[in-house]
Amino acid sequence: MKGYPVTIRLLDPPLHEFLPKYDELLGQYMELKNSGSSNKIKEIDHLMERVSYLHEFNPMMGHRGCRLGITYPEIYEMQVRAIFEAACELANEGYTIVPEVMIPLVGHVNELKVTRENAETTAQQVMKETGVKLEYLIGTMIELPRAAITADEIAQEAEFFSFGTNDLTQTTFGLSRDDAGKFLPYYVEHGILKTDPFIAIDQNGVGELVKIGVEKGRSVKPNLKIGICGEHGGEPGSVIFCHNIGLDYVSCSPFRVPIARLAAAHAVLKKDK
Domain boundary residue among 139, 162, 178? Predict the structure, then answer.
C-alpha cells in the first residue's frame, strides 16, 4: 500500500463471535465432572456464567462496534497500539505513513468523543515510546440513522466520515441483511421494490440520509473527507449517486474495483455534460 492512504476500521463484529460456544463449554463441563477432574471445572463454570451473561438475542443490534470499545476499552487500545507500532516501525524505515483509524457504529457524538480520546492517548504513548512523530486521522463510520441526522455534531470529533451503507440500509429498513434474502426477491419480482436495497442504494430513503449526513458534516468542516464502504461501492448506479452528492470516494471488494472505476468515470462524464 506504499503511497496510498489506508483506513483501518476498529473491531465491529458482535461480541458473541469471539466467545466460546455455551454448548461446547457444557460438554467439557460434563466430561470433567464425569471423570472426577476438579482442577478445570471452576474455570469452565466461570466461562459458562460469562457466556450466558453476555448472550444477546439480537447481536447485530447489540454489544458491538464502539459500544464494545467503550465498555472494554482494552480491546480498542490493543488495536490502536498495533496500528501505531506498525506505522512507527515503517516510518523508521523511511516510509511516509498516515494511519486513518475508523471507529464503527457511532450513534451519538459522545461515543466518538470517548473512543477518540482513548485512541489518541494510546497513539501518543506509542509515538513517545518509539520517538517517532506521525500524522494521523481519526474518523467514524456513519451507519445508523441517528448518526446521519446528527452528523454536524459528530463532525466536531471526526476528521473523516465513511458511510457504512450495508448497516445503514439494515437499520433504515429494519431488515436483516442475512435473512432478507428469503423475501426480497419476491418484493423485486412483484414490483414492491425496484431493486434489492442491499445491491443498489435506496436513493429515496437511505440515500437521503447519506445526503443529510454529507450536508450536516460539511456545514461544520467544509473539507471533511467523505466516502462509503460496503458492497454498494461497486454498483454502478450507486457510484454515480455518490459522485453526484459530493462524496470523495467509494470503497468495495477487490473484484468490483474495475466496475467501480468505470462507473466513476461515467459519473464524471455525465456531470460534465
Answer: 139
